[in-house]
UniProtKB/TrEMBL annotation:
It comes from Novosphingobium marinum. GO terms for molecular function: oxidoreductase activity, acting on the CH-CH group of donors, NAD or NADP as acceptor. Residues 17-332 form the Enoyl reductase (ER) domain. InterPro entries: ADH-like_C, ADH_N_2, ER, GroES-like_sf, MDR_fam, NAD(P)-bd_dom_sf. Keywords: Oxidoreductase. This is Enoyl reductase (ER) domain-containing protein. It comes from the Bacteria.
Length: 334
């Protein structure tokens, strides 16, 4: 039988102590069952939302992973065995698989797609053309309703989804303010991504900086929650729109996050607040992809990669992403 190394979730992590919660173990691949596909992983995607799967909370948008099971996550790789005629051997795929040498999936349960290999850099199927890109564009177009003249604030703007939201907002006609941690990230957002202003939340008063822009934001793409949300809410324009894509400030909590300090501003300023969750709208995938592919080919959108090599270094990459050491998309090359 074929050997397969995989990361196993042994216990719920405390904070960012992933080394004590996951272990790299050796196993063997069982024979495929009807409807299953096996992928030799080439890249793994590190995504903040998977932190919730590691915890015990049952009230998230995904149930927690059972302890003792392989850690799940998005992967790109080539099919080595298949018992699904739609995905024959040799197909390059993206799917929710396992942090492992091989992913064994049921395609319809794993958001599996066959990839267009004419795209020059296959990693872009994790980047601008991947679920981060889909989420950013869906959130801006369909949930927030971004248009010409909007003033858009994006939190975690130097992360994968945030950086793509900044560029998509700019392409849709908005003036963009990015919030990120540190001068290097903020310079990148202004010089490379096209943000009109970037706010360094580690060294600036975020609320004061937003007021200093001169015009109130009409839209907010939220990835963080907590103190950042508290700084943005009271500065929103009348009838502003807020799309909540992520709440990374609370992903390591075993209890619900405290409510925002300025919750009353939703009433006072008649704000509209809605969650963004791309699995709700699978039918939007093809249209979102075509728009993003057009922008990619026109050099109107891009995403840098923070790449770590080796399955054994997966937790190094994951910790970089969870502690904000990255600019762009964190991935692992196997």
């Amino acid at each position: 039988m074929t050997k397969n190394r995989y990361w196993r979730l042994d216990r719920n992590p405390e904070g960012n102590d992933f080394d004590s919660a996951l272990s790299l173990v050796d196993g063997e691949l069982p024979p495929l069952e009807d409807g299953q596909v096996r992928i030799r992983n080439e890249y793994l995607s590190m995504d903040a939302g998977t932190r919730m799967w590691m915890g015990p909370r049952e009230d998230g948008y995904q149930p927690p992973l059972p302890l003792g099971q392989p850690m799940a996550g998005l992967a790109i790789g080539r099919v080595t065995e298949s018992r699904d005629d739609r995905y024959p051997e040799g197909t390059m795929m993206r799917a929710f698989g396992q942090w492992a040498d091989y992913s064994t999936i049921v395609p319809d349960e794993a958001w599996a797609v066959a990839l267009d290999e004419s795209v020059e850099d296959i990693r872009d199927h994790f980047g601008a053309l991947g679920l981060n890109g889909w989420t950013a564009l869906h959130g801006l177009q369909d949930v927030i309703g971004i248009g010409e003249g909007d003033i858009l604030v994006v939190s975690a703007a130097a992360g994968a989804t945030g950086m793509l939201a900044c560029q998509a907002g700019r392409n849709l006609g908005a003036r963009v303010i990015g919030i990120a941690g540190g001068p290097e990230k903020c310079s990148f957002l202004v010089e490379k991504i096209g943000c009109e202003m970037a706010i360094d939340y580690k060294n600036e008063d975020v609320a004061k900086a937003i007021r200093g822009f001169g015009e109130k934001p009409t839209a907010y793409f939220e990835n963080v929650g907590g103190e950042i949300l508290d700084a943005v809410l009271p500065n929103m324009a009348l009838r502003g729109r807020i799309g909540i894509c992520g709440l990374v400030a609370g992903y390591d909590l075993d209890e619900p996050m405290p409510g925002p300090k300025h919750f009353d501003k939703i009433l006072m300023n008649r704000l509209r607040v809605e969650g963004i969750f791309i699995p709700d709208v699978p039918e939007r995938g093809p249209a979102l992809y075509e728009t993003l592919l057009g922008w990619l080919r026109e050099d109107r959108i891009f995403l840098p990669f923070d790449e770590t090599e080796g399955l054994d270094n997966t937790l190094v990459a994951y910790n970089r992403m969870m502690t904000g050491k990255n600019i762009g998309k964190v991935i692992v090359k196997l």
